[in-house]
Write a structure and sequence with these properties.
CATH class: Alpha Beta
CATH topology: TIM Barrel
Order of helices and strands: HEHHEEEHEHEHEHHEHEHEHH
Number of helices: 12
Low-confidence stretches: 291-303
Strand order of the largest sheet: 1-2-5-6-7-8-9-10
Strand content: 5-15%
Length: about 300
């Protein structure tokens, strides 16, 4: 049964207009998009006031049509040739210490857009040498070559969201594949021992506790180090219904269960999203002794 009434712990405040204007000036006014706006993220107020946003590259139209996602679906328009440079300039203008870059899924491109991800990483390195970089990538239709292209550019964090349990894929991710997403995380870990691997899931779609336990174990077995767990919120009445609102106490239990699977760090809560507080999550791992790839990457690109 679907549920529509928001519980008290999911009521959020409206964003401060001046903060939103600052982000707009450095993104949309420059021809760039953010997943914050396109996916209707509930954390826009908090992130805007921190003067940060998650960049959405490869255009703003996705070739897939997941039933949980608010991003536009259809035939993508021609990409901006200088998009990587524009993103890098926005990162520098915002003074970001940790930049998060994601994309729509582009099954129409031979490499799925992997080359643009690599160019964006390189451009950020040139424009803002002290900034660490996290990329949240699609599955590239399982192409090892495409993933290798991204990994060779040495992002500090490689994020790929599994999104939900295996049994929900036919309903909410019909063009994706559960095992393929796990394979992306596994290969990323094999390709680089210095890059942090990360994934994210939603709860409240109709999954069971047993299915979530299996999911945590599957993700941990790939060698993935970080997992985010957040509440699914229905973007519009046309999207998949919310089956259940998970309480903050239940999120605490899910976090403990996920850590017990072997994951190093788990962020769980109603408003947690894959790129929310990404800088703090990265810095927490670094404080625990994880070596970054930034020194090697900067040397390679002449910084």
């Amino acid at each position: 049964m679907a549920t529509n009434r928001l519980p008290s712990w999911l009521r959020n405040r409206l964003p401060e207009l001046s903060a939103m204007a600052c982000i707009h000036e450095r993104t949309y006014a420059k021809g760039l998009a953010t997943v914050c706006k396109e996916a209707r993220c509930p954390n826009q107020a908090t992130c805007a006031e921190s003067r940060t946003a998650t960049f959405l590259i490869l255009g703003s139209t996705c070739t897939r049509n997941c039933s949980f996602c608010a991003v536009r679906h259809g035939q993508p328009a021609e990409m901006l040739g200088d998009e990587p440079v524009r993103v890098a300039e926005a990162v520098a203008a915002l003074g970001l210490r940790h930049a998060v870059v994601t994309s729509v899924t582009r099954d129409d491109l031979p490499d799925g857009g992997a080359g643009i991800f690599a160019r964006t990483i390189q451009a950020i390195r040139s424009a803002s040498a002290g900034t660490t970089i996290e990329v949240l990538i699609p599955d590239f239709q399982g192409s090892p070559e495409a993933l290798r292209t991204v990994m060779d550019a040495c992002p500090e964090v490689l994020n790929h969201n599994v999104e939900t349990v295996a049994g929900m894929y036919p309903v909410v991710r019909p063009q994706a594949n559960y095992d393929r997403s796990l394979a992306v995380l596994r290969l990323a870990r094999e390709l680089s021992s210095t890059t942090i691997t990360k994934s994210g899931i939603m709860v409240g779609l109709g999954e069971t506790d047993a299915e979530l336990g299996d999911l945590f174990d599957d993700i941990a077995r790939t060698g993935c180090q970080v997992l985010t767990i957040g509440q699914y919120l229905r973007p519009t009445s046309r999207h998949h219904p919310v089956r259940r609102y998970v309480t903050p106490e239940e999120f605490d239990r899910l976090r403990e269960r996920a850590l017990a699977s072997g994951l190093k760090q788990v962020e769980a809560g109603p408003f947690v999203r894959s790129s929310y507080r990404a800088a703090a999550v990265f810095e927490a791992l670094e404080a625990r002794g994880h070596r970054t790839a930034i020194t090697d990457a900067a040397a390679e690109y002449g910084e």
